[in-house]
Structure formats: C-alpha cells, structure tokens
Amino acid sequence: MTTLSLIGIGTGNPDHVTLAAVRALNDADLILLPRKGEAKSDLVDLRRLLCQTLLREPEQAQIVEFDLPKRGERGDYLGAVDEWHNAIAEVWASLMAHHLPEGGRVGMLIWGDPSLYDSSLRIAERLGAAGGQVEVEVVPGITSLQVLTAEHRIPLNALAEPIQITTGRRLRERGWPSDAATVAVMLDSGGAFTSLPADDTYIWWGAYLGMEKQCLIKGWLSEVSDEIIHRRASLREQHGWIMDIYLLAKQPLI
User: Fold this and answer.
1) Is 90 exposed, middle or buried (0-12, 13-18, 19+ CB in 10 A)?
2) Domain 2-139 has CATH 3.10.20.30
3) Element holding 29 (H helix, E strand)
4) What CATH code would you report for 144-249?
5) Which of 80, 138, 199, 211 is surrounded by the fewest CB atoms within 10 Å?
6) pTM of this structure
7) Any idea where the domains of the chain sit in the sequence?
8) How many helices and strands in the chain, by DSSP H and E?
C-alpha cells in the first residue's frame, strides 16, 4: 500500500508552512516535485527551498522532479482538463511504482491548500485506475485568499453577508454572482473585473502573495483598474509568469 500525502504549503513563504506539513514532509519516503516549464521555474525553486529548509536530513531524502504533461488546446475546456488529469495521474502512478515498488509514503507539495481551486485531489482519485492501491491523506495549508486578506488587513466577508469564490472566466461570462456581497476571484487570465461597473466596485488585488516580489493594490475600480492591468502585464513580462487573486465588494469591508 502506498500513502500519498497532499501537503498544503501556502504561497511560498516557509513561515506559512504548518507543523503538520513539516511532519508529513519528513515522514515521506519519496517527495515528488512537479516542474511547469522554464517560465515558472521560480515555483520549483521554491519547492526545492522548502525541502532544503524543512527536511531534517535533506541530503538523505529521495526527491524526484518531473515535468507535468501539458494541457491540450481544444474547444471543450472540461474535456481537455479531464484528459490532462488522466495524463498527470499516469505520471504519478509511474513514478511511485518505479521509486517505491514495495509501497511507502509519498509527499506532494501543493500550493495553498489542496481543497481550493486545485486539482490534486481529483487527480489522486484516478490513481486506482492508473494502477496500484493508493491511500490519500490531506494536510491543509494557508491559501492565497487568506494571505490576500491578511496583507490588506481586511475581513473576508462583509458583516453577516455571504461571499462567493469564483474564477475569472465565470466572472466574465456571468457577471456579479447573485446574492453575494463579496466575490473572491481566482484563476483570472487578466482583467475579468473590467466587465463590472467600475464606479461601485471596490477591489483588493494581490500578486505573488507570500513571496518577496509580492505586489498589492486596492481601491475603487474606477481609480485603480488601469493601474492593475498595467502592473500585472509588467510583472508578467518581468518574471515570465504571474499568480494573482483579488477580492471584490460594493463597499470597503472595514
């Protein structure tokens, strides 16, 4: 039997990694580090740094890096994602079978928390079909949404009001979610908030949260929308990649 630990590691700041995550990392017989291409080499560098910092004996650990399969470009978005997840599950299964043929504990470092807009749990569910018996455990981590509100020093929701977490694509397609006083937007390819009325929408935006190059902007969309668009484009060009998130409300939360 193989146990796969999906370990939430926060947003790149070693101080955000929980004691439970450190324990799970040190208990692993094999640690798998995914690479997402040269443009996002910072991400695997951060995972390497976490291993070097948090492992009791990093030189003794079995750490294996691998390239993630690329998602196909096709009109059927959900179908393309389904095929992509199958391909990743096959890679995971192959690596575990090769490096732990007798079974053991595998650690996978997951940005933020495995439950929030991350597909690791869905991929792990397919490992049975890819071959072998795998038990999955989850170690929760600090999410980018938590770091965003902490850095802006705001609560997540308006007093006694609901919040909805959505994606940039859904915000563009459907506009402001009904019955939500506050909207958190993730996985935005850039500028989905420009589809909203600028005069009555307040935004708290953050990029590279928890990292040294963290950037924060807040204000009414009518005042900061262009600044965010331009800053985001500049940062993406400078670093070759960007991860950002933002919170929207009809008025300042405090």
Assistant:
1) middle
2) no
3) none
4) 3.30.950.10
5) 199
6) 0.89
7) 2-139, 144-249
8) 8, 10
